[in-house]
Amino acid sequence: MDRPGFAQWTILAFVEQLAEGGPMPGAGCAVSVAGALAAALGSLSNQISLKKESNPALKDLLVGMQPQIDQARRKFFDLIDADALAYHEVVKARRLPRDSEGEVNKREAAITQAFAQACEPPRQMAHLGLEVLAWAQTLAQKGNPVILADVGVMGFLAVAVVHGGLINIFSNLTMMADNPVSQSLRSEAEGLRQVLEHRRREFFALIYRQVGASEIV
């Protein structure tokens, strides 16, 4: 299968194709689009803050963040197609013949391997999402107040990206045999989920406090 080039599609075309009910694009692709949007909001917020900042130390901090945020956005674009291609390998494995015991065993092994490989794009999305969330927290604390709404949406999307990556991993694991690879993936995903919950609470409290919203007890 050739790369579908989803990152070059218009927003309308991608959303309409997503709604068509076909196998691709799917949830993983949507997660990566959300990640690209979160990183784009980070770039916007960072550049606006940089233009308005006079403190040399803070300017250096923002300057250093910009290429990292831009790199994350590009990586999310790459992961849109990577997720689709990984799922295509799952489809191919499921279509393998199963007319004999040998073929059945070969097919089951291929399916397990394909699902393990399909965990890699959402695993990267989850890690990247946590990075974007950390940048959102920094911008909420040290960026210019005019970008707080943009930073808030950036952080909320980042949280959704991490959850989206993790739910794709856990879903794939339900289709795999229990082995050292699946156990390692599950352990890593559970660890990321715990990290996310801690950082999510911190960010939500911070961003709402910054805009003067009442604290939820």
Textual characterization of the structure:
- The structure is a single chain.
- The chain is an all-alpha fold.
- The chain has one domain (25-210): Formiminotetrahydrofolate cyclodeaminase monomer, up-and-down helical bundle (Four Helix Bundle (Hemerythrin (Met), subunit A), Up-down Bundle).
- The protein is 79% helix and 0% strand.
- It has 7 helices and no strands.
- The protein has helices spanning 11-19, 27-52, 56-94, 101-118, 120-142, 148-173, 180-210.
- Helix 5 (120-142) runs antiparallel to helix 6 (148-173), helix 5 (120-142) runs parallel beside helix 7 and helix 6 runs antiparallel to helix 7 (180-210).
- It is elongated.
- It starts with 10 loop residues before the first helix and ends in a 7-residue tail after the last helix.
- The model has no long low-confidence stretch (mean pLDDT 94).
